[in-house]
Design goal:
This protein is of the alpha/beta class and 256 residues long. 39% of the residues lie in helices and 25% in strands. The structure holds benzoic acid.
């Protein structure tokens, strides 16, 4: 998870539980077995780490956000968690698999070679890397609305997230000695919690970097403007529900 976002573990678990709920599907692809050593990279509040542990695997969760690691330790005292940055992490012993759900888009694209070096070094010779994160076009409408609203108000904001295509990411995996055996980019529209407040709560949870230079008094006006821009494509007035335009990249790569 990124250094530039402020993480609130309560809010993350209460209103954004879909992050780990969708991740449960990725566990099928990981297929953890008893005794296997598995690294959960970007473990957040640890729900999927604990689910992997339930399979009998020996799992370690790492995350760059200390508040998330603290919460994970409180919630799952029987699991192991460490505060660590995926770009620099050097494990004491190799892992049979590295798993990552909804975390890698927080690391800038330029830093992914460092992450993939960590992953390749962490794996046993035939180890596997099973991951999913935001793919090309992820939350594109939300990003465009934030850019337009902030741009019109004179703010110059760079998108804090990295959302690659399969064509872009597979060669990066291969360059680090991993063979891609499965890869997919797909739409996953996500209905947000909190009815009419769903979009502003999502931006409040994940979009701190867009607002780094925005005055507190202007923040609400920006959010009103973003909602106005997105009401037509993303809000269902009948159910009072916002739907975020998520797209995922998902892959399995095996170390060769
Ligand atoms: C995602 O899971 O795709 C995501 C979450 C928060 C911000 C950006 C992307």
């Amino acid at each position: 998870m990124s250094d530039g976002n402020e993480w609130d573990p309560d809010d993350y678990d209460d209103d954004h539980g879909f992050v780990h709920e969708y991740g449960e599907d990725l566990l099928t692809l990981l297929d953890p077995e008893p005794g296997q050593r598995i690294l959960d990279l970007g473990c957040g509040t640890g729900h999927l780490t604990a689910a992997i542990a339930d399979s009998g695997a020996d799992v370690l969760g790492i995350d760059a956000a200390p508040e998330m690691v603290e919460r994970a330790r409180e919630e799952y005292p029987d699991c192991r968690f460490e505060h660590a940055d995926a770009r620099e992490y050097a494990p004491e012993a190799p892992f049979d698999a590295v798993f990552s759900n909804a975390a890698l888009h927080w690391i800038p694209g330029d830093d992914h070679d460092a992450v993939l070096e960590t992953v390749a070094d962490a794996l046993t010779d035939d180890g596997r890397f099973v991951a999913e994160f935001g793919g090309r076009g992820n939350v594109a409408r939300i990003v465009a609305a934030l850019d337009a609203e902030l741009g019109e108000r004179g703010y110059d904001v760079a998108t804090p997230w990295y959302f690659p295509s399969v064509g872009e990411y597979a060669p990066r995996l291969e360059a680090h000695g991993m063979e891609v055996t499965f890869a997919r980019l797909f739409d996953r529209p996500v209905e947000l919690e909190d009815g009419p407040d769903g979009l502003r709560n999502w931006v409040g949870m994940f979009g701190d970097e867009f607002f780094a230079d925005v005055d507190e008094t202007e923040r609400e006006a920006v959010l009103d403007g973003v909602e106005d821009r997105l009401r037509e494509p993303l809000f269902d007035a009948a159910t009072e529900t916002w739907t975020a335009d998520y797209r995922r990249i998902r892959f399995v790569a095996e170390r060769r």
